[in-house]
Write a structure and sequence with these properties.
Elements (H helix, E strand, L loop, with lengths): L6 E9 L2 E7 L4 E4 L6 H11 L4 E4 L5 H11 L16 H10 L8 E2 H7 L6 H9 L12 E2 L12 H10 L2
Parallel strand pairs: 1-4, 5-6
Antiparallel strand pairs: 1-2, 2-3
């Protein structure tokens, strides 16, 4: 079975008490849900980002992605090698690329991200772009904290953010 750009293969997986939905196109991983989000949330995202996508439940097509995610959660993987197919504005893509450069086990604040992309006054826009990250964990938005060093909002919830940061220490 081959994937085309309008087909999104999806599956769900469970880690501890968290259930996730994952989606990928022929180009790469395009979506990881927040923990315990509904299938409808994933479906709505897909129809917002793609023109009439075909959603096909097919775990076999996602095995590579699932294997890497499970290895990360088990502390066996620090870097992802999976391709991604990110759907977002040029600004969002720039922010997400910058997030991908935050080393495993380190954090940055929103101001540092805004400075890194050459837009130091765009802290709020950076925060919005981070919140729109469609591939939690793999694009490490959990590594972004408040300027005061405190944990701030996270699409996956603060419990998950704390868990991921502990996992990386």
């Amino acid at each position: 079975m081959t994937m085309d750009s309008k087909t999104i293969y999806w599956s769900s997986f469970t880690l501890g008490n968290w259930r996730f939905y994952i989606g990928a196109t022929s180009k790469g991983l395009c979506y990881i849900s927040s923990p315990n989000d509904s299938w409808e949330t994933f479906r709505n995202w897909a129809f917002h980002k793609f023109v009439n996508p075909r959603l096909i439940e097919e775990e076999e097509q996602l095995k590579f992605y699932l294997t890497e995610l499970v290895a990360y959660f088990q502390g066996e993987k620090k870097h992802f090698s999976m391709p991604v197919d990110l759907q977002g504005t040029a600004f969002q893509q720039e922010v997400w690329k910058t997030l991908s450069q935050i080393p495993f086990g380190e954090t940055r604040n929103y101001t540092k991200i805004a400075e890194a992309i050459g837009k130091p006054a765009a802290v709020r826009a950076v925060a919005n772009a981070i919140g729109a990250n469609p591939v939690l964990i793999t694009i490490p938005c959990h590594r972004v904290i408040g300027k005061n060093g405190k944990l701030t909002g996270y699409r996956g919830g603060l419990e998950m953010k704390e868990h991921l940061l502990r996992l990386e220490k």
